[in-house]
Amino acid sequence: MKAQDSLLHALTDVGDDLVEEAGHLTFPASPLRRILPLAACCAFILGAALAIQTWKPSLEAQIILPDSEDTAQEVLPSAEDAPATEVPETTGSVYILKLDDEIYGARQAVDFEGNVLVEVEHGELYLLKDESTGEALAICARDNLEDAEIASPIDLYDLEGTYLTTIEALRISCTGNVIQVNTGEEYRYFSRTAHALLASGFEDADLRGDFVLAFDLDTGMCCLFDTSGSMTATFRTERYDGRLLEWDGKHYFVITDEQGREGLMDTSGAWVLEPAWDGVTAMALGQAVVSLDGKYQVIDLDSKEILFTWPYHIYQIHAEGYVVETEDGWQQALDLAGQPVSDPAFRIELLDDEGDGQVELIQEVQTDNQLAVYRRTDGTLVREVSFQFGELYQLSARTATFRKENGNLEWIIDVETGEKIYLAHEYFYLEIIDDYDEAILCCGSYRDENNNLRTDILNEYGEVILPDVLGVVGIQHLGDGVFAALRNGRRALVRLDGTILYESDVPVGYTMQIDPEAIPTYACYLL
Amino acid sequence: MEDNAILALYFARDERALDETANKYGERCFALSYQILHCRQDAEECVNDTYIRAWNAIPPSKPTFLGAFLLKIVRNLSLSAYQAARAQKRGGGRLEPLSRELADCVTGNPEALLEAAELSRLLDRFLRSLSQKERCLFLRRYWYADSISDIAARYHLSAGTVKSSLHRTRAKLKAFLQKEGVSL
Questions:
Q1: CB pairs under 8 A between A and B
Q2: For residue A266, which of A251, A276, A277 has the smallest C-alpha distance?
Q3: In whole angstroms, what is the distance from residue A134 CA to residue A237 CA?
Q4: I need a labelling partner for A311 at 20 to 30 A (CA). Which of A171, A210, B99, B130 fits?
Q5: Which residues of A222-243 are buried (b: 16+ CB within 10 A; e: fewer)?
Q6: Residue-wise pLDDT tens digits, B71-127
Q7: Is the ipTM of this complex over 0.90?
Q8: 8-state DSSP, A186
Q9: Interchain proximity B116–A6, CB inside 8 Å
Q10: What pTM was computed for the model?
Q11: Distance of alpha carbon A103 from alpha carbon A510, whole angstroms
């Protein structure tokens, strides 16, 4: 094979994320933005601003300070009046329940008492949340979707289901004081407090809990806003290629200067690390990995002191050491003095359940003999676990599952004690419910003796917490320990203790007809 | 249907997985194969073989990106089919120009070929060092085998801009491979 053909073939196995990126990413021009009649633009801006103005007082009405008295609020039952199950800690929450398995389909927004607040028949329903605090602000309903990629009316409701306003858009998002409206043609930004348009005309955007980055691809400018809505920095797209590092809930941008040197900027637009490096690749504990002239270094971001130098890649930083590349291309864990605390391995995983840089265990993955070696951060051996003819999947620093080659789960191992826990069912699918933060919970699916699909919720030691939640694979966690479930042949909301919060009147498999008169509770049609 | 739901069907050994895969990814797989082979019948065969390979691979594999997983299979099968067709001196295909362009990156001793997996790893690293736009242009041309005009239309650029970007990226790749001590 010719050398150039080798290149063509070898390209196949580059990272899946790169293939996906090139498969989906487009850099659209925005000619429409320039030719939109000014009057229409002004009308929209005015309409949107008015809508937000109308909406704002209702949003404020949801914010109740813990110590404030609000006589209009429903009085919660006293402990004596409480039902046998514990008083829910989910007061004020709203859950979005899918009534079918379509991407856009029938949905209900249900409150913590099981009241249906808003419904859509064929569309999407989501909670507009302040990404900076996680607080739910409103319910957004987009119904009768024929083409989800074209802007259509989004009806906004408060968290009690009262209609607020309608905005023509693809999506509305919020972080801090900034409301982002994606019209399908551009991104527009409004101030929640000043009820004013902050900026518009952006073709792409990235909104997170601590910043908004808006892109004007015509001019190549990126505008960075903080959560108050102030523009804190601008830079050209060729200087920023989307690389973000994250630590302690804050994001940092890897920016390249005109000479091709990389630096690190925080969300206030300040340089955390001036551009002086060939690469800035990892970050943790107020330190970053930088490379210069083929040398890799760990630098303290406050003092700019070089803490550690290595001739090959430094992959990760943690409180008691580093993960580096060896001369032979393997990975190895080192202590802070640069001394090895693991053998070279195909892969080194740092098991850090809290994600705070304080690593509980180091895992070496040896693919030659299919062995996982667990060590403490000083290198002390804890256990060796063979995963021959299968694969090991870490649940936490305490437990891991072994799946056979056919994908079925065989056992869970307690890493400290070495105890293997065999489960009651042969789960063919088991996955961590990653948005449940209180504990490690998994959903496990299996087929019963009649070949029916069953899905349980288990803890990380294989104990079934909530059996037979759904007749499909996977779990929908709707927040606060409330899950979508199948009960009595209907879709329902259940809590972890098994109590049913709400049972829909829509049987599974039933397709709702768009007939507002026949279904008079459909708020979005009646309003 | 979302990828997780499709994967769940594979794990449940439910043959609807194949229908859902074809519904969601069939067109993309066919488009890629057709770009390489330029023959509808051969491309359809490659796509069908892709579904069989995916069925056999999942489980135990559980791809994070199902789309990329399938596209890689179809790309491999299509490249093999292309080589077989070329050996028999039949079929068109669009790889000749790509191969000629990539010859820009070739230096050194062709006897000292690198192991394919190592070369893939290096290419991955190289691509991650590029800007997003450069990377997408390069991959659309040499991974997806898109024509220059298609890339230009996709990214709202002139054909000349696309060509010059690709030229610069090939030069960077050559420098990168030289720096890494790779002889191709």
A1: 161
A2: A251
A3: 29
A4: B130
A5: bbbbbbebeebbebebebbbeb
A6: 999 999 998 888 887 766 554 556 777 887 887 777 655 444 567 778 888 899 889
A7: no
A8: -
A9: yes
A10: 0.62
A11: 16
